[in-house]
């Protein structure tokens, strides 16, 4: 097990509970130092962190949840949105608290190393990279769909994916979260506006755009649906992953001016995300039924589809850019950590950073071409990667810092074992969700 001390352990060692002294102790452990020389990464305030979090979470999920609603039904889907986002918010709190108690942790992999040793650190790091490479791939698919919707040129879809990949790689190559902060404002505003236009547009139609325009047809709106296991798991994983990318927030904490402002940014972000997911997806499903498109921006006819994608295209690029940036930053810090090149404008610094961004871009492009079905990429990321990263591991982190609860009073014992139940829950979602995606892909290809 890693010997990295927590902030609490360090404060006990020096014999102080003074907030200012503790803040100084935490600063000694931070990955990035506040500096006037070289590259100062610690430039993100909590308002900008909120917007970065919003753009990281409120991105591809809003385009996929309406289709999941058809599988689960309006009531089942709504309850699923509320339950999953509440769980994602809570586990994000656990991750952030653990990170601030162990300031040397830059990523979820570092935190896994504290509780599980080197093997768990490497396994978690691999899952983290795979997760955000898959999300980058889904972002590339979304951008290529958007470009295709806007163009009447008969170019092959692969070429649109190439163009999307180039845009994403260039945007992700900016080194600091603060420098791409203005992109997140544009990205969030564009996707929110595009979805709002879609919501208004679908309510003005007599029947869904994809449905037969004459004669009787099956609308497909259900308060409660009863899907099979595979379809239900795919829909649940789609909703779960729409808010499960909270591990991407941890590298942002390392670049915040005051990491202790994390909870403030998190709660604002997840409150907005949950309310938007619930309202937008229910309205779109109510007016489109089984004829909802995936991604959902194509649900109101060709003209509105072009308008929505035209407005949302910057957001789709920014989303993929953020996912790629987070994965590349993890590798970058792992390679150069404790090296003078980490915060210096050297050839090694730049060569390492650009190798990380462009190398992962190529892998994301290959995955986007191998699994070009938008919702399956998201579900696969949710089941294989985010189930252990966003459900099981956060509970383990909490148990590590609260091991004394196991021998405490009844309430503390209940809290301890309730957190322990999160571990098998995450493993169940991982196995069941992966099985569901495989079955659904096989049925789609049949």
Automatic annotation (TrEMBL):
UniProt name for this protein: Putative N amino acid transport system protein
Name where it mostly resides: membrane
The entry's family comment says: Belongs to the amino acid/polyamine transporter 2 family.
One Gene Ontology term, aspect cellular component? membrane
Residues forming the Amino acid transporter transmembrane domain are 43-438
Q: Which domain of life is it from?
A: Eukaryota
Q: Which GO terms describe its molecular function?
A: L-amino acid transmembrane transporter activity
Q: How does it sit in the membrane?
A: Multi-pass membrane protein
Transmembrane stretches in the record are 44-63, 70-87, 126-147, 154-174, 180-202, 223-245, 265-285, 306-327, 347-367, 374-396, 416-438
Q: Spell out the subcellular localization from the entry.
A: Membrane
InterPro entries recorded = AA_transpt_TM
What are the entry keywords? Membrane, Transmembrane, Transmembrane helix
């Amino acid at each position: 097990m890693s010997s990295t001390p927590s902030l609490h352990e360090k404060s006990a060692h020096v014999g102080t509970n003074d907030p200012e002294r503790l803040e100084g102790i935490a600063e000694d452990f931070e990955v990035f130092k506040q500096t006037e020389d070289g590259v100062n990464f610690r430039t993100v305030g909590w308002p900008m962190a909120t917007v970065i979090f919003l753009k990281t979470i409120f991105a591809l999920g809003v385009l996929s949840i309406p289709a999941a609603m058809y599988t689960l039904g309006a009531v089942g889907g709504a309850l699923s949105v509320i339950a999953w986002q509440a769980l994602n918010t809570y586990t994000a709190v656990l991750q952030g608290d653990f990170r601030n108690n162990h300031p040397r942790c830059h990523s979820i992999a570092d935190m896994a190393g504290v509780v599980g040793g080197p093997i768990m650190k490497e396994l978690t790091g691999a899952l983290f990279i795979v997760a955000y490479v898959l999300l980058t791939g889904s972002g590339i698919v979304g951008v290529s769909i958007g470009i295709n919707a806007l163009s009447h040129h008969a170019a092959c879809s692969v070429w649109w994916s190439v163009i999307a990949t180039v845009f994403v790689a260039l945007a992700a190559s900016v080194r600091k979260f603060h420098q791409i902060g203005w992109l997140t404002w544009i990205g969030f505003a564009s996707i929110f506006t595009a979805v709002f236009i879609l919501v208004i547009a679908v309510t003005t139609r007599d029947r869904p755009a994809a449905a037969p325009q004459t004669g009787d047809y099956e609308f497909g709106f259900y308060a409660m649906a009863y899907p099979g296991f595979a379809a239900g798991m795919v829909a649940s994983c789609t909703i779960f992953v729409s808010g499960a990318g909270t591990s991407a927030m941890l590298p942002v904490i390392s670049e915040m001016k005051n990491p202790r402002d994390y909870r403030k940014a998190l709660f604002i972000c997840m409150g907005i995300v949950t309310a938007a997911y619930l309202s937008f997806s229910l309205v779109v499903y109510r007016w489109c039924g089984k004829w909802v498109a995936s991604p959902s921006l194509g649900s109101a006819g060709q003209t509105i589809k072009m308008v929505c994608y035209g407005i949302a295209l910057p957001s789709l690029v920014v989303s993929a850019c953020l996912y790629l940036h987070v994965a590349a930053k993890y590798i970058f810090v792992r390679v150069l950590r404790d090296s003078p090149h980490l915060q210096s404008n050297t050839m090694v610094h730049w060569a390492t950073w650009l190798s990380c961004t462009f190398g992962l871009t190529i892998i994301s492009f290959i995955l986007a071409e191998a699994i070009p079905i938008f919702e399956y990429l998201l579900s696969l990321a949710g089941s294989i990667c985010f189930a252990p990263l966003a459900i099981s591991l956060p509970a383990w982190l909490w148990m590590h810092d609260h091991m004394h609860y196991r021998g405490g009073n009844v309430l503390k014992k209940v809290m301890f074992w309730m957190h322990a139940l999160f571990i098998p829950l995450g493993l169940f979602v991982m196995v069941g969700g992966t099985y569901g995606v495989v079955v659904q892909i096989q049925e789609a290809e049949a």
